[in-house]
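re: that chain from earlier
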Amino acid sequence: MVPSAGLKVKRTRSSPYRQTKVKDGRSWKMLQDSLWQERCVVKESGILNHLTKEELLLQESIYEVATSEQSYLERLTVAVNHFMESPELNSAIASRDQKALFSSMHKMREISKNFLDSMVQNLGSRLFCEGFCDVVHRYATGPFNAYVDYIRNIPCQKQTLIKLRKESPRFVEILNKLQEDPCCNRLPLDSFLSLPFQRISQLKVIMETVLKRAASKSDIQASAEAALTEISEVLEACNREVGKMKQIEELVNIANKIEFECKALPLVSSSRWLIRDGEMTQLTLNENIFVQRKNCTVHLILFNDLLLVASKKGSDRYVVHDHVHRSLIEVTEGAKVEDDLEGYDMSRVFLLAILKNHKGSSYQLLLQASTLEERDSWLKVLKSEEGVYEEWDCPQVRCIEAYNGQQPGELSLQPEDIVSIIQKTSDGLMEGRRLPDGERGWFPAKCVKEISNEHVQRRNLRQRHHVLQAAANILKRRSICQDQHTTTCFNKY
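^ sequence. v structure.
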C-alpha cells in the first residue's frame, strides 16, 4: 500500500469521532476509504495497473484534501454538539461568555460541510479527483476568510476560558465531565477550539504536496498553483492575526508589571509592539565626598513608537519615571562623547539624549552596557535610518502638481491628494502611500509640498539638538567654557 502524502489523519472504524458524524442526508460514503486506491470504483476499473508510482501518489495527495476535511469536520461536530450546545455547560456560563468562548464555531462547521459537499459532488463516480484543486481555489477566495475572523477572536477566547476556569468551579466540573466522554478522544476543549487554525495550515501543506507531485506544465499543476496561492494568502492573514495576538499579550504582560511615577499613558494598542527591553548602567561624572562616582541601574523598555525609562522594583516589577516618543531620542557612541570618562570602558558606553519628554524637558543619560555586543544591539534599535520612515513617524505631503506615473511602481497623483511618505532619495524622488486608498509608489518630490504635523515638529527638535551639540563641541575644543554636562539618576529602589 502506498502511504498518502502530507498530513494524513489516521482514522479507523472504531474512532470515537465516528459517533459524531452528521447525518443530514449528505452522501459521503465514497470517502469511507482512507486512500484513493481503496475506492471500489478505482479498484474495479483496473487503472491501478497502468499508473506510475508518481501518478498514484499525486491522486492520493489530492484525495487527502477530502478525507482530511472529513476528519476535521467530525472534530468540529464534537466541538459544536458536545461542548457548544451542551445544556449543562451553557447553564454554568453567561451568554456573553458562551459567545466569546465558541465564537463562530457554528459557521466554521457549516463552511466545512459545504466545502466537503462540493468536493464530493465534484468527484461523483469519476476515477480521478483533480477537480478538488478548483474547489479549494473557489473556497479560498471567499468562504475561507471566516478563518481570519475566527482567529482574530482567539485572544478573547483564551481570556474567557482562563477566567471561567479560575472563577467558576461549576464550569470546571462540568467541563471535566464532558472531556471524559469517549467522543473527545482524551482531548481537552482547548484542542477543539484551535482546530480552525490547525486546519488552514494543514490545507496549505497538502496543496504544496499536490503541486510538488503534479507534472510540469499540466492542468493539475496550474490549478494546484492557483489554489495554493489563495490558501497561502488566507494563512498569511491568519498568521498576521496571530502576530497581533502575541503583541497584545506581550503588551498586557508588560502593563501588568509596571507602575507610573510620572504621567501614566495606556500601553496596550494594536499599533504598538515591543522592540527590546533590558537593564543598563547609568554613569555619573560627578564624584561624591569620598571621591567616588556613584552609578545606578536604569531599565529601558523600547516599543516601536515609545521609550520608557524605568527602574526595577522587586523581582518582577518596574516603576516608569519618564516616557518619550521614539523619534525624540538621539544616541551618540561613547568614543564621540567629549567628557572625562577615565576609568570607563568607552567601547560599551553611549549617550542617550531625550530631546523632549512627556513634560517637554530635555536631558541626557550616559549609559554603559554589560558587553560590546549588547551596546551595539541597543544602538541599532535606537538609531533611525535617515530618509526612511516608519508608520508611527512619517511626514505627510499634499500634491500641488499632477503627476501621471509612466512606469510600474510609480504613483499617479492629482492636486490635493495626501500621501504618507515611506522614504526619500537624494535625487529628488519620494516613495509614499496615498490616503485613503493606500496605493503605494514613487513620484517626484517637486510635485508635492510637506504638511506641517507632529513629524515636522519632532524633526525640527532633532535638528536643533544636532546644532546645539555641534556648537557645544566647538566650545569645548576651544576651551571657552567648562562642560556643564549632568545626568539624572532614576534609581530609587
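The chain has three domains: 16-254, 259-385, 396-452.
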